[in-house]
Amino acid sequence: MLKPTQAPLPADPITAELVFHELNPTQRAFLVTDGTVTELLEAVFLEAIEVVKLSQRTAPLANPVASLAAGTGETGYAREVLLVGKQSRHHYVHASSIILLDRLPGTLRIELLETGKGIGHILRDHHIETFRQITGYWSEAAAGLADYFGLMSGELLLGRQYVVHHQGRPIMQIQERFAQSTFGVS
Q1: What pTM was estimated for this model as a whole?
Q2: Do residues 172 and 163 touch, judged by C-beta distance below 8 A?
Q3: Per the domain annotation, does 60 fall within a domain?
Q4: Nearest-5° Cα angle at 108, 78 to 84
Q5: Would residue 9 count as lying in a domain?
Q6: Could you tell me if residue 137 is inside a domain?
Q7: Do 73 and 63 touch, CB atoms closer than 8 A?
Q8: CB–CB of 81/53 below 8 Å?
Q9: Distance between CA atoms of 121 and 51, rounded to whole angstroms?
Q10: Helix axis angle, 25-32 relative to 37-45, nearest 10°?
């Protein structure tokens, strides 16, 4: 049974430990964008971004996932990746996803499981119309993710969570975290 490996959100993920107006414009843009983060990274840092899979697993959901309107036993795909600069090798974003495979078109499902492409690129390449609903953003200590970003465990990450909908149904939930220092401290 698949138990989501995503870190729990703070009690109030929209405002927890995050003073939005104190962030610089780039930090705010990355938190609220409903577009493809990979393309935004490429535009800001002027380098191609690659997806490095850290883990992936397909199994029935062990518990319901309310934000996805998914019940116990529905097939879930948990994926954890880093978005890395091809030239700089800089780790820009850590992302973890829960994806409901049975709600995806077949060719998209195959590409998601068998390639290292980013989710946004796959959706775009397959001309899948989606709506991204941001459900929270926050700041937190890097803790267990510190090594990915070359940080001390107490240094800050900014995070966000969103749900991707297709044909009126939620198909995936994604959490993305990035080092506050990557985009400059305001």
Answers
A1: 0.86
A2: yes
A3: yes
A4: 60
A5: no
A6: yes
A7: no
A8: yes
A9: 11
A10: 160
CATH number at residue 154: 3.40.1410.10
176's enclosing H/E stretch is strand 169-179
Q: Is residue 13 part of a domain?
A: no
Reported as a single tens digit per residue, the pLDDT across 16-49 is: 556 777 888 888 888 888 778 888 999 999 999 9
Q: In what order do the strands lie in the sheet with 49-60?
A: 49-60, 75-85, 91-100, 169-179, 156-166, 131-141
Boundaries of domain holding 118? 20-183
Q: Which residue has the higher pLDDT, 72 or 6?
A: 72
185 pLDDT band, cuts 50/70/90, is low
Average pLDDT over all residues of the chain: 85
d(CA 181, CA 59): 36
